[in-house]
Amino acid sequence: MKQNKIKYWSIILIILMALIILVSLLALCTGSAGIQLKDIPHILFYGKGTSDYSILLGIRLPRIILGLSIGGALSLAGALLQGIFKNPLVEPYTLGISGGASLGVCINIVFSFYSKIGIIAYPLSGFLGASLVIFLVYYLNNNTKNIKSNRMLLTGVMISYVASSLVMLLMAVSKTDDLQNIVLWIMGSLDEPNTILIKMVLFGSLAGLVVSYFFCFDLNALLLGEDEAANLGVNTTRTKKFLFIIASFLTGLSVSVAGIIMFAGLIVPHFMRMIAGPDHRILLISSFLAGAAFLVLCDVIARVVISPLELPVGVITGIIGGVIFIWVLSRKQVTL
Amino acid sequence: MNQILFIDNLSFKYHEKNVLKDISFSTDPGEFISIIGPNGCGKTTLIKIISKINKPEKGNIYIKGKNIQTMSNKQLARHIAVVMQSSEPVSMSVEEYVLLGRLPFFKKYQFFETAKDIALAHKYMELTGILKLAHAPINEISGGERQLAAIARALTQEPMLLILDEPTSHLDITHQIQILELISSLKTTLSISVLMVIHDLNLAAEYSDRLVLLNGKNGTIYQTGTCEQVLSEESIQEVYQTTVKIQKNPVSKRPCLFLVSQNALNQKENPIL
Questions:
Q1: Residue partners of A82: CB distance under 8 A and separation at least 6
Q2: What's this model's pTM, rounded to 2 decimal places?
Q3: Predicted ipTM?
């Protein structure tokens, strides 16, 4: 039985890896420059200095890496949150965590924290805003025994509204060049010129994945409910706190670089749970990988739909995710 | 100090109300104790305090002479296993579910179950008779089978004390008897002590070695003792405010309660009254 499980998990991982390579290649040859897939090896090996070379390595590759990292981070955050709250509709956006992160980043822009402590101010402020919201949502709903209730989602959506209203308030009172910064950033896109930020997101999301694996068994136990998990030796308070911090970290990081990307963390864990099962040992990594591939694919779609113009990638994830959200909500029994 | 569980002068308050007050009792190795009492008398709270989910206001609990407050949740889970009243629905297989009982024994950086873990899970699925359901999803089997799976999971923890909260509620008599036979066989086959919360007084009397009757009014223990000592018409009248008739079960000779309708009680000519 154990051999079968390892075999099945390996197959899933291999397929997801192949999928990532596939969408990355697709993303590499999608764009207005008209670079063909078959030309790519030639350009990479012999084309140093040409404009095609710099388009591939200077523009498209960083964008793919960012897309993979952010897609992975958001899906992982979604998988962790769904595990803690035992609710398949929970993810960074629906819980208002993305909203909190965006408010944090706006405050950072308006008060110019980034000029004082450097570029790290973006992810840091995103993380602080995200963790503030996650603990707020948790404690507002903790007193009700029935944490599964969609009241928590409602709280999250309301916090999102409050956060976006506050963002607008900040925009209204901010200076013109700050305003432009905020607007550009809010539009949300994977087009990020700053390589330090891209590296930060890449290593940050990988670190989040590694750290979350320390809690994969606790998450499995939490599937049975908090009391049952405690009976199985899980220190539930501590575990939840750590997982909240990891989820806020992943969300804050993503939002601070790419703006709000809706529902990316909802769809992927939901489908991976159907395919790979509820065991978090495989669910976390497979959500991460599938999320990575999913976001890059969405980005490709966003770039070709109204080409030569491009849509914000959040529009694509928003449409797909919103429809799936409604579908999940309308199904009779929703269990993890 | 041969006791498995020793509860020493335990009190618990909820919203300034005494839910449990001055509770003391102990269980010997291989002893089957049932906790009985009216609704809301703190039976489930007591279980949650023993399993460290709730913190007592006063008093201590010892497992094998060791205060549970000094133990980590994981250490505690290696000694006691709890079968809660209602598990939340999950979509894992019965085997995966039972294997979760091995979590307290996972070493740091261990990622897969060992052969021993799987062997233990299979042993207890066999013992509880659910091995044939190993690959069935846990949320698609019957209530009785799910209860058996929960017991198998608890046994996979290889505990010295098994705690059960209403293991027979919502089950038909076939499964009630099946589950209680299983639980009472554990003391001889595995020398596990059992602490069970149960509403059905007749089932409690039939299977338990000793009873702890909680008093719903002030959270104290009304009486502890053998089934014959605790189950009297007077004590039931006092604790449950209900008139019952108690006779001996003709086969097992254990006390057996008869609930009587008001109408029948009023008929004075009834010879038994």
A1: A88, A90, A91, A269, A270, A273, A336
A2: 0.91
A3: 0.90
